[in-house]
Amino acid sequence: MKCNVYFLLSIIPVIPTFLLSLWHICKCTTIMPYTYKYPRPAVTADCIVITSEEEPRVLLIERGEEPFKGCWAIPGGFLNMDETTEQCAIRELEEETGLKIDKANQIGAYCKVDRDPRGRTISVAYLAIVERPLEVSGQDDAAKAKWFPVNALPPLAFDHDEIMADAMAKYDQLKP
């Protein structure tokens, strides 16, 4: 017991210094949210799927929600924080059409300031090629999913006409 008392008496002078150091460490390592001077755009990914048939077809979805509700569009959506844009494109394709693919080839990035009426959005587009039209259905925020001949497309939402033109050029490079 006598030993413990002497020990306590010996550390009393250093306790204020220790507490001050502890307070300083806690104060300096407080987790703060990120704050940036510049606003950040949203990021989306789109997945164009085209068949390798003699008369190729492309998979489109009819949008079930605004903006462009009722219009045809390329399957796609917003990027999750824990995925790449390719993973996002593949996930969104499955969520909206039920179609599962393993790999897609990047076509390009689309960043016109007014491309999405919901706000500043940058999209990365991907191309997947399948042998023939596979069974699909409109799911999630897609009212319908349907295969269209590439030479007879309906009017498309957003800037998807531009993306589709680039997808066809990429398709010509990659088709089997």
Describe this structure in words.
By secondary structure, the protein is an alpha+beta fold. The protein contains four helices and seven strands; from the N terminus they run ααββββαβββα. It has helices spanning 2-11, 15-28, 85-97, 160-174; strands at 42-51, 57-63, 72-73, 76-78, 105-110, 121-130, 142-149. The model is unreliable at 5-9 and 22-26 (pLDDT under 50).
Give me some keywords for this one:
alpha+beta; three-stranded antiparallel β-sheet; 26% strand
Shape descriptor: globular
| Largest sheet geometry | 4 strands, mixed
User: What is the structural class?
Assistant: alpha+beta
The count of β-strands is: 7
Number of H- or I-type helical stretches: 4
Quaternary form: single chain
Strand coverage percent: 25-35%
Helix/strand order, N-terminal first = HHEEEEHEEEH
Uncertain parts: 5-9, 22-26
Read across the widest sheet, the strand sequence of neighbours is 4-1-6-5
Mean pLDDT: 88
Radius of gyration: 27 Å
Helix percentage range = 25-40%
Span of the ends, CA to CA? 86 Å
